[in-house]
Amino acid sequence: MTDGRLVQPIKIARAYEQLAGLLRERITSGELGVGDRLPSESALAKQAGVSRSTVREALRILEQGGLVERASPRIMVVADRSDVPAFRELRRELRRRNVTFHHLHESLMTIDPELTRFAAIRADKSDIKALHEALDEQEEHLDHLAEWSRLDVEFHAQMAELSANPALIIAREPISQLLLPALYRFMDTREMAEHATNYHRRIVNEIEVRDPDTAAAVMRRHLNDWRTAWEKRGLDLHQEILDLSYTSKSEPNTVVSPHHEEEEERSWASSRVPRRSPV
Amino acid sequence: MTDGRLVQPIKIARAYEQLAGLLRERITSGELGVGDRLPSESALAKQAGVSRSTVREALRILEQGGLVERASPRIMVVADRSDVPAFRELRRELRRRNVTFHHLHESLMTIDPELTRFAAIRADKSDIKALHEALDEQEEHLDHLAEWSRLDVEFHAQMAELSANPALIIAREPISQLLLPALYRFMDTREMAEHATNYHRRIVNEIEVRDPDTAAAVMRRHLNDWRTAWEKRGLDLHQEILDLSYTSKSEPNTVVSPHHEEEEERSWASSRVPRRSPV
DNA sequence: CTGCGCTTATCGTCTGACCATCGACACTAC
DNA sequence: GTAGTGTCGATGGTCAGACGATAAGCGCAG
Fold first, then answer.
1. What is the rounded CA–CA span in Å between residue A43 and residue A38?
2. What b/e readout covers A68-93, taking b as 16+ CB neighbours within 10 angstroms?
């Protein structure tokens, strides 16, 4: 059959790209937390077995990508990536197209159960342990709904991460960034939190016993409950979603002022001294 | 806004940042047009009066920023920033995370069948008519694979549109923008096009008789065929998708010549950048 | 505990080199 | 002429090592 091609195209593995990838992994995996200081360039070079020039090119990539930033002229730290530019753009695009609760919900109903299925297939022992821990923590905060909501976002993100499919994770992210904050606005009773947490527990259990289909099904029901709750509140399914993108965890309630973007031109043309600003 | 700050943070003028700024200016000012080739690194170094390392760091910034891209492993050109910024951003984010064929395919397998289902539920007479027309046109171009591919993209986009869910459409778009061009690179026989078109026809038929489940199922099989074809070509499912994808619509531009050297692999994956070194 | 200098680690940059590959051209065979 | 093949300079990827500037970190005096 006529393959036509004898060998496949080969992706060039540039050292600086590989290194950037490795560091990115360390960061996104949580091995390096926000604010953690990076080793010195020479240390990185030695550890990775490359030259400092290579390390620096990798750092430029990560820096430009927003994964790391300078805490001071010679200290690089892991940046707070709660708001990746790409996602900000995407959310804007979504709003521009007047997405409604229904749209977003339907999207998550499409993606999240599948993510759960993949998670059930791919999670290993330690992942499951982490899920249980997350669950426990969430249960401890049933009475602190703000904190509970934060943990809820994290739980779903964790699930997405376990799917080990960056494409799906990325596709899902802006959707959840728009939908979840909207949900938490009326998630205001302990009962609702309990109910949701129970679902989470069941999902994790199904993952643990390696039943992807059931796990996905439970996730689907869990999400359906959201819709039900929304309707019970008398809210319109077809109401547009405004961008309440949650920004920070530790900051005291800064009002999310619609910061106008699009004049970055200048601000990053020159070095920007990092400001611990809420996104 | 009362700023409160007495002095603005001073900016440190790193050479590589200044250079990046300069080049950026040249590009945005139109002095360098889309597709124009950049001077060689050494030439730039000489012109700017800096060392090549500095030039390279500047280039990494511009590259990561999407202002320039590689036309081939050693030719840098000014990138096309004409399409929707959000999608461009997203594609870059995807590439950044080293998505593979498998990731993208799995994502479309998750999203597209559902889109099809929704389309089957929501399409009206005129939509179906449009679908048939698109099909007919595609069938007329079974021998012009370039054109056929364009129509194929359109067909799938049309299907997405019929789902009437902007969130899913947007989430899907960058994925398909990366995956489809990769696919068409080996979609090179009339048989393959015929096969695919047949699937399309069946999908449209199922939509017409309002059988969402079957429509979704057929779409799923259709997509599965892609994966099969990919594998039959001896291509690696876990090969990263290189994205030189989208600019080559109109010009017969240089196809990225794949360079082979299969034993680069070893020095890379193993020796050069040590695994699991605690960064 | 605070503020001050001192030391040194670390960054920014440069030089010059090596190698593999690319691209273009010259050459050979049909 | 056209198509394959060989050659060679140009270019990119990487490295090792160096130097100056200065911020970070620390100890010490107040």
1. 9
2. bbbbeeeebbbbbbebbbbbbbbbeb
Query: pLDDT tens, B128-182?
Result: 999 999 999 999 998 888 888 889 989 999 999 999 999 999 999 999 988 888 8
Question: Is residue B263 left, alpha or beta, with left meaning phi > 0 and alpha meaning psi from -120 to 50?
Answer: alpha
pLDDT per residue as tens digits for the range B31-48 = 888 888 899 999 999 999
Per residue in A151-188, pLDDT (tens digit) is 998 899 999 999 999 999 999 999 998 888 888 877 77
Nucleotides in chain C near protein beta carbons (<7 Å): 9-17, 20-23
Residue-level length of chain B? 279
B16 touches chain A (CB under 8 A): yes
What is the rounded CA–CA span in Å between residue A22 and residue A61?
12
Which residues, 6+ apart, have CB-to-CB distance to B174 below 8 Å? A171, B87, B90, B91, B94
Distance CA A278, CA B13 (A): 25
Query: Quick check: B154 and B160 in contact, CB under 8 A?
Result: no
Q: What are B63's two structure tokens?
A: 């590259």
Contact A171 B171 (CB under 8 A): yes
A159: CB partners within 8 A, 6+ apart = A112, A115, A116, A119, A131, A203, A219
Q: In A 70-109, which Cβ lie closer than 7 Å to strand C? A: 73-74, 76
- DSSP three-state, residue A69: strand
Is residue A125 within 8 A of residue A232, CB to CB? The reply is no
